[in-house]
Amino acid sequence: MSVKPVLHEASLSTASPDEVLTLFGPRDQHVRKLRRLFGVDITSRDGKIRVAGEEASVASAIRTLERLRQTFRKKGTLSIGDIETLASSEGAQVAGGRPPRPSADAINIQHPGRQVSPRTPGQAMYVESIRKHDLTFAIGPAGCGKTYLAVAMAVEALKANQVRKIVLVRPAVEAGENLGFLPGDLRAKLNPYLRPLMDALGEMVDYDQARGLMEQDVIEIIPLAYMRGRTLNDAFIILDEAQNTTVAQMKMFLTRMGERSKVVVSGDATQLDLPKGVRSGLHDATHRLRGIDAIGQVRLQACDIVRHALVQRIVEAYELAEAASPNQEPSADR
Q1: Are 193 and 169 in contact (CB under 8 A)?
Q2: What is the chain's mean pLDDT, rounded?
Q3: CA nearest to 219, candidates 196, 199, 243, 235
Q4: Helix H or strand E encompassing 262
Q5: N or C end of the chain, less CB within 10 A?
Q6: Mean pLDDT, residues 54-59
Q7: What is the DSSP letter of 257?
């Protein structure tokens, strides 16, 4: 029987908000590195930086922060080199050569009474990849939190003023139904395709607030075709159901990324609705771009599914059947 480590907490007083901003770094780059290295939670409130985690890790993180504060007061600034130099010496004592643990920090959506956190190691790696990279690809089965966690990260970034806009994108690819026969105008026809993104957003932002942000164009939910010709700066952009993009569409989407923007591309390779013989843009991009270190790629598994317990068993049953007969087409609609 394993014994859970006792969590400890310590705090460091700061002289000014500017000192906190410098210690945390641009877009929290410094503090994210410290979290990964020491496996601790680091937050700031009321002029104090709070560190929580295992006792030895907390002590080393506090010492590193104190040394960083002294460096800042002498130099008036901090570089990423200062962070790496001071943190690595303390980190070697804490980690003992072990790889850093993925951060499972709560995602701060600033919604009273609601907290969003990774619930599995795979989800923690996904959230950490989004924090670390400006572009992250996530592939995994239904119910593993790909869309939900990406939207939560977008809301966190917007409310922390790290971005000025959220853009939620989905390809309008038909899955057995014909778009032209759906009732209503174009907006009504597109609503079923964009509804999953709206559902996730609705759990994190009050309806009236979300509607106001949409009217102000701060939150935009659009089909993929509407992205052509745009450049998005200071934006958090999520492409959902990316397995249903073509190679050309994926290239078009990825090149919309502007300055100070963050992009998450998610999809499920087992739910492909493209015509037979058309190569998936998600599959192509993850292979074509796999050698670029600045791009994160996360593969979630059936064990990361957090919907009804039966969903995980259903996914596993389909995976087993497909592994046994990989070339056999299903007799009914997919």
Answers
A1: no
A2: 79
A3: 235
A4: strand 262-267
A5: N
A6: 83
A7: B
